[in-house]
TrEMBL record:
Pfam families: Pyr_redox_2 (PF07992). Signal peptide: none annotated. It comes from the Bacteria. Keywords: Flavoprotein, Oxidoreductase. This is NAD(P)/FAD-dependent oxidoreductase.
């Protein structure tokens, strides 16, 4: 059997794409090994009707929606290789026969590496997060800290001012903020320190203090860090697609890459972390692009 489309990745982008294609009566192979980036998150926010849903519950409900369409087949296996040959794709998976498809949609998300901060693993996803839009409301009016050695920490600092007036910015031993940026933050009461973090202290996942390398401590109850993200799409770089500055796959307005028949959606296309709602919307648009391409080919036969 040759599927109309093989979707690699079962996050919000891949699942929404499968839903759209299933409703378009396209045959779909949905490959997902159940390793979402947000699996440490207790609740997801910012998606209308789904605000506060746990990642596991979101996936359960999404799969119930998707798999009621008989043309969608779920393969709960890792994909090891994708080969394009003679106008179709061969998707090599572990423990099963290869899957053949006319189109491939990559929605594989990101690998997330936390910064080297002792104790960050104890608080990440409970009281320390990476996205103010996702979790700022839950930390509103608290004593917050944002830690990052990238210039984008200035943008995060300004964002956090909307949720709390007690914000400290730590550049962790680096000088990524210039004097004018420091002046702007100071004018709003946002403190900046360039000290290096020795440890994040916590109790049962709740951040309590930040310790600096000089031994001093600062009481904080929540915060934000800047993980490093590596797109899973690097595993399929042999396909030869173009990428953007973040490592995401460049696509046109319909989600198609520089490789004909290869589409991308969600974090696979941006190379950056995305909210559920934006990833799902991206998957929907890419699925329409896949369906449009298949339709045009059918009318040229």
């Amino acid at each position: 059997m040759i599927y109309d489309c093989a979707i690699i990745g079962g996050g919000p982008a891949g699942l929404n794409a499968a839903l759209v294609l299933g409703r378009a009566r396209r045959t779909v192979a949905l490959c997902d090994n159940n390793r979402p980036r947000n699996r440490v998150t207790h609740a997801s926010h910012g998606f209308i009707t789904q605000d506060g849903v746990t990642p596991s519950e979101f996936r359960r409900k999404a799969y119930a929606d998707v798999l009621k369409y008989p043309s969608v087949q779920h393969y709960a296996v890792p994909v090891t290789e994708i080969i394009k040959e003679q106008g179709t794709f061969t998707v090599v998976v572990e423990g099963s026969e290869p899957i053949r498809a006319r189109k491939v949609l990559l929605a594989v998300g990101l690998d997330e590496t936390l910064p080297d901060l002792p104790g960050v693993g104890d608080v990440y996803g409970t009281s320390v997060f990476h996205c103010p839009y996702c979790d700022g409301w839950e930390l509103r009016d608290q004593a917050l800290i944002a830690i990052g050695d990238h210039p984008r920490i200035f943008h995060i600092a300004k964002l956090l001012f909307g949720w709390s007036r007690d914000v400290v910015i730590c550049t962790n031993g680096t000088q990524v903020l210039d004097d004018e940026q420091k002046r702007q933050l100071s004018a709003k009461g946002i403190r900046v320190t360039e000290q290096r973090v020795a440890a994040l202290h916590s109790e049962q996942g709740k951040l309590t203090e930040v310790e600096w390398t000089d031994g001093t401590r600062l009481a904080r109850s929540g915060g934000f860090v800047m993980p490093q993200w590596t797109p899973h799409t690097v595993r399929f770089a042999s396909l030869g697609f173009d990428t953007n500055e973040w490592g995401g796959i460049k696509t046109n307005e319909l989600g198609e890459s520089s490789v004909p028949g290869l589409f991308a959606a969600g974090e696979a296309a941006t190379g950056m972390g995305a909210q559920l709602i934006t990833a799902a919307a991206s998957g929907s648009m890419a699925a329409m692009g896949v369906n449009t391409a298949l339709m045009e080919e059918a009318f040229q036969e």
